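Minutes, methods subgroup
Present: GH (chair), OT, SY

1. OT presented the first of two proteins processed in the latest run. Sequence and structure tokens recorded below as shown on screen.
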Amino acid sequence: MNNNQTPHRLNIRMIISLILVVVAIGVWSLYLSKDDTPSAADNSRALIGGAFELTNHKNEMVSDKDFLGKYMIVYFGYTYCPDVCPMDLQIMTDSMHHLPQEIANKVTPVFVTIDPERDTVEVMAEYVQYFHEDLVGLTGTLEQINTIKKAYRVYAAKADETEDYLVDHTAYTYLMDTDGSLLKHFNHGEDPEQMASIMATLIK
């Protein structure tokens, strides 16, 4: 009787072992097929933003740490810009006014100059008055401005070397999360109501 049961027990063990092998292969295949590659949007969010130290339009030294805990909407431009910058800053202002007040209270609008040679603290203080009442103007040394430009992947270069030179630059508006990472960027000339609607869906 014992001799007859031995092959039967061996067969059961073989079947169980085979099932375990099949399950293990299935689990391993799922693991290998799992796509952990960051998307283009994930890469963009990781690349935009970073540490900086600048001077605000009230002549106070500030850094990226001073803005943690609040959302930022950030624009890079310069006060001598004849059209693009004032247009985008006005769009930023209008979009802030379209937000429900409880959401707008969570957002700090920021204007960073890319022309620190001309955009002194005094110049920035006068300029920001023409836009949103909470707009923070940031300037600094050329080295400090280059640091934040690099962190935000901003291109800017003088168009010529005349006294009244213009500056060629990217014209994005960045919505930054409370931890300083990118949530969304907006292109030049965005519709302010649409911009506000998108901001409202992203802000918690």
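2. SY then presented the second protein from the same run.
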Amino acid sequence: MAVTGKEYERMTQAASPPTGLLRNLLCAFGTGGAVCALGEGLEMLYTALGVAQETRKLLVPCSLILLSALLTALGVYDKLASVAGAGLLVPITGFANAVVSPAMEFSSEGRILGTGAQMFRIAGPVLAYGTAAAALYGVIYELIVR
């Protein structure tokens, strides 16, 4: 059964519920702001705990990544994202979700071929190679520059 472009568009329109643009914008704005406020709250918490500024710069994004990965693993992130929309897909939380989701989906195939291979599917290369490159550059800096 061949479906024409117009028929497919009509079927898509019928299957997709209408969404309110203003509602979506407000949810995205509010949720994105909440993620940023959470980051600022973590910064203030680490400051109150006496953590050095250089370390705080690392702890805040790592904490947001860990929280996003944990919420994804618990199955909460997708439910929040369906309500919050694009606001929850702020790059740092969205990348964490994009790495953990495929890895969890293929965990039944084993640690190496399932979880290990699939976590590199979407955002994994950016995070993994970015982290490896940062570590390598840090070692080079410490050994050569200093």
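Chair's summary of item 2: The first helix runs from residue 5 to 15.
Next meeting: continue with the remaining queue.
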